[in-house]
Each structure stands twice: as structure tokens, then as C-alpha cells.
Amino acid sequence: MKTEIMPEEWVSQDLEPRLVFVYGTLRRGGINDINRLVPPPVFQGTASVWGHLFDLGAYPGLLLASASEPGGGVVCGEVYAIDTALERQLDVIEEIQGRPDDEYFRRQVSVKVGGQSCGCLVYEINPRRVLGRSLIDHGDWIRHVGEGCP
Fold this sequence. Notes:
With about 150 residues, this protein is mainly beta. Helices cover about 10% and strands about 35% of the residues.
């Protein structure tokens, strides 16, 4: 029996799909609904993180926080399994370039989906981008937009 060696670019370093937590325009019903992207993500469930959700006009920005941090609250979102091609698309949408002045930074957070803890990619806003911006107290961008904001 002959063993075939696959070219390096064909071998996935990460056989499990990556999970992403989306909280703004990428949520179902949002203007950038992740479900319209290709390859399609796989919905895992709703979840929340602790932080501060800001209104940046056409989209929100999340600053992650610990539960003990004053002023923080629950930020609502959805978790999706994505592959590397979709992850690259999300990086383009969020304009990730790896620079300190990027609008968003890629972070890893732990969320509970269906009672199970899992690590998720999340796009956190650069703190300098939310100075003087309104806080969305209830932490739900889709609700905020539905209420006639922004």
C-alpha cells in the first residue's frame, strides 16, 4: 500500500472548525449577516460575553471586560463554526491588518453555548475608536437597530 503525502497547503493545522462570536452587523438580520457569506458558517447557538457595547453609527464596537469591572454588562451574540476561508473574509470585513491603529483586534474569548464552554474568535474594537461614543446599555445591537437607532 502506497502512502501519499499531501502538499503542505492542503494539510489543515486545525482540523476542527474555528468558532466565532458575532455581536453586531454579522448577526442574523444584520446588514452583514454572516449567513450570506460563502462558505456558509454553521450556527452553534446564542451566547453572550461581558463587556461594553458602543454605537459607532452603522455598526457597533465591543470592548471586552471582566464581570467585576464597573459599567460592564452582558453583550448578546451568536456563535458560528467557520472555516479558514470564511475567517479570512471576516478579517477583510473587519479590516484586520495587524497594526496597532486597526479599528478591530482579533481576540479569543470563552463563551457558553448550549451549556458547553468553548473558545471563540471575537473582533474587539480598538478602545481609541469608542471615545465619546454612546454605550448601548442593554448590550443587543439587533434590538438597538430595531428601536430606530442609529
